[in-house]
Amino acid sequence: MSTITPAPEQDEVAPPTSTTMVVMGAMTGLAAAAAFAGWEWSLVRWLGLSIPVGPDFDSVLVTYLLIGGGAGALLGAAGLRAGAWAVAMGVSVGAYLLSGKLGMLLAETGLPPAVGLILVPIGVALGVFIAHSPISDERKLGIGSGLFIALALGLPLNLHLLPSPVAPIALVVDIGVLLAAAGVAALTVLVGQKVAKTGAVLPVIFANLLGWGVYASVDIPHAPVGVASQSDGPPVVIIVVDTLRPDHLGAYGYARNTSPNLDALARRSVVFDNAWGAAPWTLPAMGSLFTGRFPNGHGAGVNNGAGNSLSSLRRDVPVMAQAFRNAGYTTVGVTTNPWTTAAFGFERGFQVYDDRVGPYAQPVAVHPLRVAGLNALTMAEFRPAEQVTDAAAAQIQSLGDTGWMMVVHYMDVHGPHLTLDHDAEAVQAPERRSYSDNYDAAIHRVDRQIGRLLTHVSRDAWVIVTADHGEELDEGRQAPEGAPEGVRHGHTMYEEVLQVPMIVRVPGRSGRHVQRMVGLVDVFPTLNDVFELGIDTRFDGQPMPEVGASSQGLDSQRILVAEGMRWGPEQQAARRGADKLIEHYGLGFEMYNIADDPSESQQVGMAEQGSSQRLRSLQSALPAVGVSATGESAALGAEMRALLIRLGYADP
After folding, report:
1. Burial class (CB in 10 A: 0-12, 13-18, 19+), 532
2. Residue 484 forms part of a structural domain
3. pLDDT (tens digit per residue) in 317-326
4. Are residues 109 and 203 located together in one domain of the fold?
5. Is there a domain that residue 226 lies in?
């Protein structure tokens, strides 16, 4: 009798171990995070906007990878595979990113933005719930793919292009992105039956190749001015280095090699050894540079006696850019300081005004931990000098050889100092042990970029290098109550924050040093005179004959004024020659002789001969406090307020 031999039983495929699931989930999460970065930055490059560079690029990418890899590993440990993993990952990360947007909405209503992080546990729970639902695996993979597209497109558009994440246009864009994501999800479902069996690995690899391929192939466009100049006058370039002290430049006698390019420029320029700002912080100081008036005259950022007013430039005060524009010049501004944005009226008169802050400065969706008050990254809140120079150089290439004026504002010397190793080594501070070490390394970083910028500027151009204010380093001044810890400007009127560099290269003139005292308020009157801009208005500044302006009406005894505290009650300062007065609103005064006491450590005694008369003369030059003409209140959204807080300007 024949017998039938049963077929050998096939071994069942053993399910993957928990360790394998964790590793696979983490690796897929890492790949998904890298793909997300590639897609986001491709879109940002295509828009011609800023992306992180150098160490900033690395820190953002590492943050993405940590979030993606960590979330993927957790979902793998929960036993999720294939489409289930993809949909849970997409919903969880989407909730994390959207928690930042919710935080911004809460901030607009006055609630703590950190409450927005409540979306994170809700998103994780929802993602796991959908992952365990009876939906087919290919549908889950489709949902995950749609979420990926929604985040990769919607996030950079909200972050980099739209005026606000809660603006009406943002809602329209978000709806369009969601429709595109739905289309991708539907396509994934149609072709996803076979792909779903492989899990999320193949779609993520494909997304990586496509995203980074597009990134590598897209050039960064820079919109040219597109306006023909009506003047054949020489170009004018005004370079402002935020927070730069002159005594830390080689041209002013500093020992460290912080500024080789500026030193070379100074040898061919008129260098004013005694130049004064008009305020100890940016908003009122830059207002004085742009208008030629002291803060009480232009209205931006004045102090009413008890505290600061975040007001913008008065619309009825003539500004330098408009004067050049009226004279037929093409006018361009490139800045990354939030105090000099259009919100405060600084765009007036510029045909192109590039006032973008750092690519991740606004806490919109991408870094919710910042909304919660935690600094998830170490990158700066402003565009680094490399990107500012790129933007300015691209504009110069489209401007021609004559008839344009440009203002370029660098921010790197302002804290936090994200210095590079070779800049620290160049100033012989490789370990960057102190604030001064980082400060000097930051100067060297900006100096390198100024050198690169000047290679695009013809020798026939006027070049003016200055700063808005200085910085306290080792002086040990006492900050007022309510100021952020470690604040180093905006709360005193001592020389370390009022002295600024003033280097003016005039075509055809040789270099020399000038001891006469000048101020930021003198720049506009000087250019108005030399270039015959035709502005007939009251200037607090006066032309500088050392660079070719008229000496008619030059007052050698004039008094320079600084005012506009950022922190605490108002202080005002007046300076004529070596005599220096600091008036504390309602609290008394300090008086110094800067020639004898440059560190302002010993006040002039009122019993000294002539001191009372000199005091009364200086006091008479100070405008009344509390009745200064102020500009309109600046309309600041929650994003800008949060940015200013993170830059150290608490409670803006």
Report:
1. exposed
2. no
3. 999 999 999 9
4. yes
5. no
List the structure tokens of 598.
């440059």
- Pick the residue with more confidence: 417 or 334? 334
Q: Comparing C-alpha atoms, which of 377, 320, 381, 268 is closest to residue 641? A: 381
The CA-to-CA distance between both ends of the chain, in Å, stands at: 98
Structure tokens at 356: 């973008």
Is the model more confident about 208 or about 55? 208
Please count the residues of the chain: 652
* pLDDT, tens digit, 9 for 90 and up, residues 173-229: 778 878 887 887 787 777 665 555 555 566 677 777 877 887 777 765 555 556 667
Q: DSSP label at 554?
A: -
Q: Which amino acid is at 493?
A: M
Q: Give the Cα separation of 81 and 199 in Å (integer).
A: 6
Tell how far CA 337 is from the center of its chain. Answer: 5
Q: In Å, how far from its chain's centre is CA 7? A: 73
Q: What are phi and psi of 525, to 5 degrees?
A: -60, -35
Peptide bond into 363 cis (omega under 30): no
CA 284 to chain centre: 18
> How far is residue 592's CA from residue 583's CA, in Å, rounded to a whole number?
12
Is the Cβ–Cβ distance between 522 and 288 less than 8 Å? no
Cα(479)–Cα(488) distance, integer angstroms: 8
pLDDT tens-digit map of 376-386: 444 566 888 98
Separation of alpha carbons 268 and 351, rounded Å: 30
Domain that holds residue 527: 236-473+491-506+514-558
Q: Whose structure tokens read 């619309």? A: 315
Residues 209 and 252 placed together within one structural domain of the fold: no
pTM, full prediction: 0.76
CA angle 489, 464, 648 (to 5 degrees): 20
517 pLDDT more than 70: yes
